[in-house]
Fold each of these.
Amino acid sequence: MTSSSPTTFLRALRDLDLPDHPEAVVVDGRALSRAGLRAVAVAFGARLPDAGPVAVFAEPTLETVVAVSGCLLAGVPVVPVPPDAGPAETAHVVTDSGATCWAGPPREGVDLPVVEVPTVADDVPARDRPDDLPAPVAETETAIVLYTSGTTGAPKGVVLSHRALRTGIEGLADAWGWTGHDVVAHGLPLFHTHGLVLGVLGSLHLGSRVVHTGRPTPQAYAATPATVYFGVPTVWTRVARDPEAARALSGARLLVSGSAPLPVPVFERLRELTGHALVERYGMTETMITLSTRADGERRPGWVGLPVGEARTRLRAEDGHEVPADGETVGRLEVSGPMLFDGYLNLPETTAEVLGPDGWFATGDLAVVDADGFHRIVGRESVDLIKSGGYRIGAGEIETSLLALPEVQEVAVLGLPDEDLGQRIVAYAVVAPEDADDALAARMVEHVAADLSWHKRPREVRFVPSLPRNAMGKVQKKLMLDVPG
Ligand code: MCA
Ligand code: AMP
């Protein structure tokens, strides 16, 4: 296939050749068949004013699925907007992406024409309901722009083509034996790769049914019959603490964990309770899913397995040489393949720092590989990229936000180990002694939740007399991580 081939992403939604089901897509109890979804998605696409990107308020609703699918079928880039983002972050996403319209309820910080999202054919006037699929765009066209955090600055738009999404999903179909016979269940956010691209769009490409549980609680998973369950480690940690819910998942075909490291004790506990060794996979917004254990292969606790589909990996030492595949020597993980992103929107220099002209992307993760090609992720190079509950959060953006409060003189944000969230966001702040009280700590948390997003709020504030700095004045975060308490 050449790079200019027309897109076939969302094949099961385009062709309707696989068996349909009245509940092919269920979100929080509301359902559509694939034929029904296609009709309303095409009608939504027909309402778009131009070919500009569409900002979609990505609540976990059927409307979000319709709007995202409608954009992709129409060949128009889609920009999911986190529903918990504050006005400033929402405005940044909308402005930076160049979105020309808005799909969702009115929102502070958004001044774009609104396109109504239909959810049932009855909502769509007959003249708007031709269900004629628009001609597919080239595979190399942008499908989606996903905003994600870096170590500093505002979130960056990760530009992914139809080809990246298709090849990424088809690699997972091979690794997991994922077919139209599956029912996928999850309750993850619909503005990231895991919940939206894999859970929803992957199902619409491969023809599996998908059920979004509203929230990713153990009880909701237990109450949802499915063959494949997706969760971030926090979800699996909570399931492991609820034996009744865990046992309800025993009949599944696969339980899949990703987006952050799955603690080995959680893997072991779930094996006892469910009889399943979880499949663990590793990916990034920029790369889709690079590594995974296989449905038909070894599952090793603490390891993320083999390259998925057309993904290739290499591990490099500081001197640029590849490290030996001995299962011990740590190297910087690099990835190449057709599922890679095309760059950060409007940021060619930042893109060039991580994506080489040879097509290799530097992930910023440290890993080891053994002689069988099995990979283990050891950690990240930078302490400034935090993973909390599976969300990627930049320490820098939280620090910038907190420094806007007049009481905060200096601040350093760290991700400290947390049994539930993997890492919890802790803000170490220098303030005048008379200001250092619970009221200010609460205000700092609320400020970040409102200014950035709810999931970026510090879970804890610690007032300290000073921050450790080196001779250059740089805060020594690694030293702070070594100090208990
Ligand atoms: C939530 N709450 C709020 C708000 N939002 N309150 C006020 N304002 C808000 N905006 C309340 C909830 O109602 C709830 O209250 C409480 O806060 C906690 O909510 P919960 O959602 O349970 O949050 P949590 O416990 O902090 O989060 C755990 C979580 C969440 C559910 C696992 O972190 C999550 O959804 N993570 C998924 C992240 C993800 O999908 N990452 C994938 C990135 P109450 O309890 O009273 O009801 S993509 C990626 O990494 C790649 C490519 C990959 O490899 O997958
Ligand atoms: P995001 O762009 O939100 O997908 O975050 C990507 C980052 O999540 C990666 O660079 C890793 O640091 C981390 N990550 C994802 N999956 C795993 C995993 N299975 N084990 C360890 N880290 C992971």
Amino acid sequence: MQMVSTLADLRAARLALPGTAGLIPTMGYLHEGHISLARRARAECDSVIASIFVNPAQFAPNEDLAKYPRNLERDLQLLESAGVDLVWTPTPEGMYPPGFSTWVEVEGLTRPLEGAARPGHFRGVTTVVTKLFSAVQPERAYFGQKDAQQAAVIRKMVRDLDFPIEIIVGPTVREADGLAMSSRNAYLNAEERKAATVLFNALSAAQQAYQHGERDGDVLRGILRHVIDLQPLARMQYVSAADYDTLEELQTLTGKTLLSMAVFIGQTRLIDNFVLG
Ligand code: PAF
């Protein structure tokens, strides 16, 4: 496995790789969710490239950029055993040199949910993903369903800007007790870790009601809120039952629906979602 940091080295290494290329963009501190995407890319593409870059542009000043967990050595071992050919670790100065002033922004889909809770977040994501796509020029790029809105926003950006890239979204990988794998789970202490199952439990309760025929958006959002309220260490930021394509809140569920939420467990902000229908 080759490792490069500068854009010039990335371009040279990319040119030398054979056939179709799959890209897995990451912020490092990898878990089974990322690795399952790397394995899938290995099976579907001739060459597999991963990027590791904790992107400052997608963190607000009050967020966790400085303490975001990092372990490059372990990440490289995991990527190598998943069969990755090339790892790109850009630097913040390389990605955003002095005077950088060009941004990519998807309108509409970025307004609700994570967009409302984290102003500027998606502008940072779409800008860095554009730069990663433009440098790597992959045929396919792999993202996780845990960040459902991010996947929808990137799909929209790829359509709107005519990137010749297939976006592949892999399923959320969960711990045995249902907690969705996330690099941010590393922030949780033992007590918080137990409490963090409340996201999965709330989604499961709403899903069960849906399976018994409940189609009222307010009732389903109420179930999510109720389960979260019962957990003393949890503080809800939002719960949502939205149209899967438009992300607009639903009064009545008719087609494919995204149930999603953001919840603070202590100081740690976690998100999760289920797709219904
Ligand atoms: O999902 C992530 O880890 C990040 O948002 C991404 C897509 C790598 C962009 O920085």
